[in-house]
Write a structure and sequence with these properties.
Order of helices and strands: EHEHEHEHHHEHHEHEHEHEHEHHEHEHH
CATH architecture of the largest domain: Alpha-Beta Barrel
Distance between the termini: 32 Å
Shape: elongated
CATH superfamily of the largest domain: Aldolase class I
Largest sheet: 8 strands, parallel, barrel
CATH class of the largest domain: Alpha Beta
Radius of gyration: 24 Å
Number of domains: 2
CATH topology of the largest domain: TIM Barrel
Strand order of the largest sheet: 5-6-7-8-9-10-11-12
Strand content: 15-25%
């Protein structure tokens, strides 16, 4: 199943995950029963594809994808299983992705699929019926690729810290985050998240111990890498630990861990926790340097910080932040890390992040608790799950 890939796109942004494109091409060959066929893929900019469009199609200007078949009327090429070349403009793909509200790689996959169908004999320009036939085939293959690349739906883990915040405001025993966790699980959440801070401003030791006994899905303990908290985690043994930065004066976690700047400390903490059978995730900004450092220190997961994407108000800035998250998630996945995401996600902005195929789980707290004030916790969780389908 040889896929010949060449990236001639001359700029560093938007960044293209070449392995992702190659993997999509290999899946297309596999699903089409052409595992022995050879397919060539070339990524270019608008200027380059515009020139190819002018020379070969006698049309001016750039286009999104061109397909050059080697099998039409060439028995030798057919005998050798040489399908041909697909040329994609990253410039045009990025503009189209932005307009459609999808990731660059989702659009690249669609263009790759479109070009591939041209190579194997589909042509939407022949007639309306031919266009409909090609469209139906595109949808069928896209469904199959999605199924192959993600065997399970993305999961929702609910952070119940704010239930504890409300309780601590009065210094009494309710509302109880342990009870809240049970309601979230019954509504479909596949994980419960709590942050045990050094100052114990909301979640208490008692909460974590009871949650360890009662959570049926997965208990994710967020914490700083302080010795006292690490010892507590080793005693309680949650299903996983997410190491986060922690400042006494912050209202909520303000950014990702600087893993690259404290490798020695984090590697030691991860070693202790994973030595006790507790997988460790690192909460990081969507930054290639931090992803590499997370891999270097031995983390199993990274949780991509989605705070800036959630907080920005300008369209252009939000799109840029989304692209950073999408690229970081794919880069972490390709590095062998498992990928989660969270912080600031709500009922408006979650669906796009949930659609990123390399992300396994979203951690959401404040938005669900705020919604629960009006509709109840069970309904708030179910509404969020509905957005993630």
């Amino acid at each position: 199943m040889p896929v010949l890939f060449r990236n001639d796109f001359p700029r560093s942004f938007p960044r293209v995950n070449e392995l992702s494109v190659r993997r999509s091409a290999e899946l297309l060959l596999e699903l089409s029963g052409m595992v022995e066929a050879e397919l060539s893929i070339l990524l270019v900019d608008d200027k380059q594809i515009g020139e190819l469009n002018r020379v070969w199609r006698r049309k001016s200007g750039a286009t999104n994808v061109l397909a050059f078949s080697l099998t039409e009327g060439d028995d030798s090429a057919m005998a050798l299983n040489l399908l041909g070349d697909i040329v994609i403009s990253v410039d045009t793909a990025a503009r189209e992705a932005k307009k459609e509200g999808i990731t660059l790689h989702t659009r690249l996959q669609a263009l790759l699929l479109h070009g591939f169908l041209h190579l194997i004999g589909y042509d939407h320009e022949k007639s309306d019926s031919a266009a409909e036939r090609m469209h139906d085939k595109e949808q069928d293959l896209l469904q199959e690729i999605t199924k192959k690349r993600r065997e399970k739906m993305i999961k929702l883990a609910v952070n119940v810290d704010h239930i504890a915040t409300l309780r601590q405001a009065r210094g009494i025993s309710e509302p109880d985050p342990v009870l809240a966790a049970g309601i979230c699980e019954l509504a479909g959440a596949e994980g419960i998240v709590v942050h045990l801070r050094e100052d114990r401003r909301h979640i208490q030791d008692r909460d974590v111990r009871l949650l360890r006994q009662t959570v049926k899905s997965k208990l994710n303990l967020e914490m700083g890498a302080a010795k006292e908290i690490i010892n507590f985690a080793l005693d309680v043994k949650p299903d996983m630990v997410t190491l986060v930065p922690e400042k006494r004066k912050e209202l909520t976690t303000e950014g990702g861990l600087n893993v690259a700047g404290q490798k020695k400390k984090l590697k030691a903490a991860i070693g202790r926790l994973q030595g006790a059978g507790i997988p460790v995730s690192l909460f990081i900004n969507p930054d290639p340097r931090q992803i590499k450092a997370a891999k270097d220190v031995g983390a199993t997961f990274v949780e991509i910080h989605t705070g800036r994407y959630s907080d920005v108000t300008g369209h252009e800035e939000r799109e840029q932040e989304f692209e950073l998250i999408a690229a970081a998630a794919e880069e972490a996945y390709e590095a062998g890390l498992r990928v989660n995401a969270g912080h600031g996600l709500n009922y408006v902005n979650t669906a796009r992040i949930a659609a990123l195929e390399t992300i396994e789980e979203l951690s959401i707290g404040h938005a669900i608790m705020a919604r629960a004030v009006f509709v109840g916790l069970d309904q708030a969780v179910r509404e969020m799950l509905g957005l993630m389908l």
